[in-house]
Amino acid sequence: MSLQSTVAEVLDREHVFSFMTPQSTAKLNVDKNVLLYLEGISVSFDGFKAINDLNLYINDGELRCIIGPNGAGKTTMMDIITGKTRPDTGAAWFGQTINLLDMDEPAIAQAGIGRKFQKPTVFEFLTVFENLELAMAGDRAVLKILGARINGEQRDRLDEVLELIGLKELPHMRAGSLSHGQKQWLEIGMLLMQQPRLLLVDEPVAGMTHQEMDRTAELLTSLAGKHSVVVVEHDMDFVRSLAGKDRTVTVLHQGSVLAEGRMEQVQNNRKVVEVYLGE
Amino acid sequence: MFLWRIMKDDRGGQILLALLAASIVLVPILNGLPSDSALHLPTYTVTLIGKYLTLALLAVAVDLVWGYLGILTLGHGAFFALGGYAMGMYLMRQIGDRGVYGNPELPDFMVFLNWQELPWFWQGFDQFWFAAIMVMLVPGALAFVFGALAFRSRVSGVYLSIITQALTFALMLAFYRNEMGFGGNNGLTDFKDLLGFSLQSNSTRIGLFIASALALAFGYLLCRYLMQSRLGRVCVAVRDAESRARFMGYRVENVKLWIFTISAMIAGVAGALYVPQVGIINPNEFSPLNSIEVVVWVAVGGRATLYGAVVGALVINYAKSYFTAELPDVWLFALGGLFVLVTLLLPRGITGLLRSKEAV
Amino acid sequence: MTIRTFGGFCLLCLLFLLVPLRASAAGDEAVYNEAAKLLTSRSFDEKEQAIRLLADNNHPQTKQLMTLLMESRLYFNKKDDGLYQIDDYETDKPAISLLNNEPVAIEKKRDFKKITLNNQLRSLVRQIQAEIGLKSPDLSRRLAAVREMLGSMDEDALALIRKAYAKEDSATVREVMQIAIAIGELPAADEARARDAVATLAGSLEPDARNALTQFAGSTDNAALKAAAEKALAEIEQRARFYGGVETLYFGLSLGSVLVLAGIGLAITFGVMGVINMAHGELIMLGAYTTYVIQQLMPNHIGLSLIVAIPCAFLVSALVGIAIERGVIRFLYGRPLETLLATFGISLVLQQAVRTIFSPLNRSVATPEWMSGLIEINPVLSLTTSRLYIIAFCLLVFFALLLVLKRTSLGLQVRAVSQNRAMARAMGVRSEWVDALTFGLGSGVAGVAGVALSQLTNVGPNLGQSYIIDSFMVVVFGGVGNLWGTLVAGLSLGVANKVLEPWAGAVLAKILVLVFIILFIQKRPRGLFPQRGRAAEG
């Protein structure tokens, strides 16, 4: 926005400043059973095309695995969906009605898209309990969170998630003192508290033991159905166990979709083999 | 009870509030003792402590944004000074025709500059209630506009620090100009009375001391209330992982804006109470050094502990009074050394030394 | 040629020179005595005679005498009736005899009496001075003489110039003479000549030409001529405005150069290393004090001391900078806000140290002669030499730095470390060593900036403080990590400041620029020339 229009906005008496109005979101509409539309998206950094004419559709309630070599544009794609990066061209819609490109990160998060980062980021100075409390779905307006108290129902939900992520014994531990794996779990727990419609999970099992990986796979599968889950992962064993026989796997390469289909199909795709094993 | 709820985990704060309450009762009594009594507290000392308390309030305001929200503000002195100027303008108007030039309407410096009538922005300052509102409104409005611009465009970290410093620097240059109508170089001074009470009298000075102590107590409670709420935890979240908080749906810029504005208003009140006790306000209060000194008080006391900010402000200001009187050359060495030592060796400040592992 | 023959040769030359002088010397002496007698008279008529006598005989001392007369420094001694030059009319001060250039102490003030002039005589003297000037063999003297006359063109002056014009062979002088003639002719000329005169004046930027035109436009009855004169005036006005603009630009560039000099060291420490060094201003101050000290050590070689000071200041500031980096900053990498506070503390210590060692008072550093003076481009535009040096120096430092960063192995390592520390280390770059050297380089450049600043302002403990905010503004405005950005930002801020100054005043201009940058950073937090790419997005 130019300086001029900013001044005009500040001087405008008729309307509340745009940065003070809660961003009202249109109601999510998934009539066509598709939750996320990415169409013709391109983005480049200094001439380098990170995403090149990407088309991707995620169905409602689907669990989708996305694989791809380094630099395929997986993280950039997540940045676009969550509003961190603006694409140069293309369209991104959440359901039929919500245009993601018009919204910033908090608005997108409130519309129902949750994201887990590659490197676990939790609020280190807050306790496990407080981390989950902040993630809890609810009104995020400043005055509302000033007076917010936890009610019984929310308390139960918190306990439930604590149990689920295996941190029931440590609710008052500082998040900063948790082990790497525990932080991963805590972050997943925070995602659950957020109750998003769409979960974007970036390399969830990095730094986890095999048992933990199995539990994570189990958890993510159980989430599918009620939520849509997009998992970006390098670990092929994990993807295989997650995708099973009938889930769709998408392969990204150089910023666009190289192949899409069931795990076996993808694995036997010549182009995919070339990309992964080299020419 | 409300007080109990917000103070129950705050040991330092409880002690601080108890001490403030005690001082409100004891100081007038000790001051009233005959002057040859060993326990007599001279009025001069009372005013000095009152001044420290206002500075402590400023430190609390800075701790609110720096300690909890991670905004290193190098321009809070500007809000403090603006509050001080608003109070100073009221005190100037109170002088009335007792000034050197005896003009009932215009302050002396305006007569001296050959101004014919009162500038519009001086209107209304003859009323205490108006001045009192302005003490909070002007710093608040400036902070709001500045913050709205800065936080929305996600200026953060050192960039924000530098532009807050530029802000107070620009204001200092502006207030040095005679044309601004705030007394230029000399600022506002020669105050006579406040609400009809002479500023020279003992009782007014005691009254100002009590007002400062109450303001500190209320400011402390307000900040404590904000910080123990979920909003406070969001602040800490923003401080430690801003983008994570954003991806969780929190409007980081709004959180910052509100806290920053509230903090500026508290600083304004501190400035307003400071001015009648020192008897002068001039553009030097805007100097970047002043603002950055406040940050050191907070750092020395301990970031993100509100009582730490109070302790830091009191300790350093006492040291400053001592050094500037006894060893003026050493003071800047000491202050400069303190900056380095605290950041290198005492990241949690002196209260951090006393504290065991306690939740923030 | 041996020394002896050389000496002989000189003697011979001297003799040749002396012979013609000798011949007229006897006549000059008589004229001088006669004139001196007449000058001491009370009557202004006799004084006039004396002046004319001197001028008509081309007496060699005429010029000196006229100057002294005009400046009221010519006295005569009542006892011996001799003429004396007295600069300071007080007891015990020297009075210099014009006969033999011997100084005598004034014993009693009343022995000496000033030779006074009336207005009529003054104009006569002025005319004679002009005449002498016009005949001078020195081109610049002649030019100055014509210029001098522009303001007071009357019949006599006109005649004088016309006469000189015929003999003049320098095109530059002839040009100014034409203007003088046009000014002289304008009031009384017929239409055709007036038109020519207006046309001549239209091309001139001399303020006197403008005055003459204004006066003419106001007084003439001829509408066509009046219009022509007004048109010429508008033309002149426009050109004057243009040169005024050029001058503002020049001032702006020189101020901008100072800003660039102050900021460029910071562009390295802040831009390349990401370290906030609030003591940067004090490193500049140290450079300025180094200049001061070196000048104290060699008081007789001011110009040389300045040149010696450049490497010295670089070394002093660089060493202090390295000490700061090794002692404090390296423990705080990755914690920019703490670095800011700690270095601010260091800046306080350095300030106080300077106050204790030198004094809290400002010190002034002398400017060598080759740096003071003016380069006159035309009557409305003259450039101060010192500013020119500053601009040149700034560009020199800038390109030297660019060369160091782009072409040396240190520069390569610096860039490597700043882009990816871990990778650089893995490749065998000693990153700690590079950090220290980079910081030293940035600090050293600050010291060099201090040398330049010592030529512009007084050197005092607060010198650094007044530049630190400006320096940060320049670096942030230009885009962090981009030396070219710093150059463009510094120069454009300097120009903006000077452009705003005439209608806003110096202080307000500065405030406006600050406010502008504050708003600008909100809009483009990464400055004018941001570093782009995935790394910068994070």
How would you describe this structure in keywords?
heterotrimer, A: 279 residues, alpha/beta, Rossmann fold, six-stranded mixed β-sheet, C: 538 residues, mainly alpha, five-stranded antiparallel β-sheet, two-stranded antiparallel sheet, 21 helices, transmembrane (chain B), branched-chain amino acid transmembrane transporter activity (chain B), Urea ABC transporter, permease protein UrtC (chain B)
Question: How do you describe this structure in short?
Answer:
Chain A has 279 residues and is an alpha/beta fold.
Q: What structural category arises from helix and sheet content of chain B?
A: mainly alpha
Strand content of chain B: under 5%
How far from one another are the termini of chain B?
22 Å
Spatial extent as radius of gyration of chain B: 21 Å
Q: What name is given to the CATH topology of chain A?
A: Rossmann fold
CATH class of chain A: Alpha Beta
C-alpha Rg of chain A (nearest Å): 20 Å
**Number of helical segments with 4 or more residues of chain A:** 11
* Percent in strands of chain A: 15-25%
Q: Classify the oligomer.
A: heterotrimer
Describe the protein in words.
- The complex is a heterotrimer of chains A (279), B (360) and C (538).
- Chain A has 279 residues and is of the alpha/beta class.
- Chain A has helices at 3-11, 74-81, 105-111, 128-135, 142-147, 152-164, 180-194, 210-223, 236-243, 263-268, 270-277, and strands spanning 34-45, 48-59, 63-67, 89-94, 98-99, 113-116, 198-202, 228-232, 248-253, 256-262.
- In chain A, the strands form 2 sheets. A 6-stranded mixed sheet of chain A has the order 6-7-8-3-9-10, with helices on both faces. Chain A has a 4-stranded antiparallel sheet with strand order 2-1-4-5, with helices on one face.
- With 360 residues, chain B is mainly alpha-helical.
- Chain B has one domain (2-354).
- Helix content of chain B is 71%, strand content 2%.
- Chain B has 15 helices and 4 strands.
- Chain B has helices at residues 2-7, 11-32, 43-68, 76-95, 108-112, 128-152, 157-176, 202-228, 230-240, 242-247, 252-278, 288-301, 306-326, 328-345, 349-354, and strands spanning 188-189, 193-194, 197-198, 280-281.
- In chain B, the strands form 2 sheets. Chain B has a two-stranded antiparallel sheet with strand order 1-4. A two-stranded antiparallel ribbon of chain B has the order 2-3.
- The relative contact order of chain B is 0.18.
- Chain C is mostly helical.
- Helices cover 70% and strands 5% of the residues of chain C.
- Chain C has 21 helices and 7 strands.
- Chain C has helices at 3-39, 44-56, 62-70, 119-135, 139-150, 155-167, 171-185, 191-202, 207-219, 223-272, 280-297, 302-327, 336-357, 385-407, 409-419, 421-426, 431-454, 465-478, 483-504, 506-523, 534-537, and strands spanning 74-77, 83-85, 94-97, 103-105, 112-114, 374-378, 381-384.
- Chain C has a 5-stranded antiparallel sheet. In chain C, strands 6-7 form a two-stranded antiparallel ribbon.
- The longest helix of chain C is centred in the middle third of the chain and has 50 residues, at 223-272.
- Chains in contact: A-B, A-C, B-C.
- Chains B and C meet through α6, α7, α12 and α14 of B and α13, α18 and α20 of C.
- Chain A: Keywords: ATP-binding, Nucleotide-binding, Transport.
- Chain A: It comes from Marinobacterium lacunae.
- Chain A: One of its GO terms (cellular component) is plasma membrane.
- Chain A: InterPro entries: ABC_AA/LPS_Transport, ABC_transporter-like_ATP-bd, ABC_transptr_urea_ATP-bd_UrtD, BCA_ABC_TP_C, P-loop_NTPase.
- Chain A: One of its GO terms (molecular function) is ATP binding.
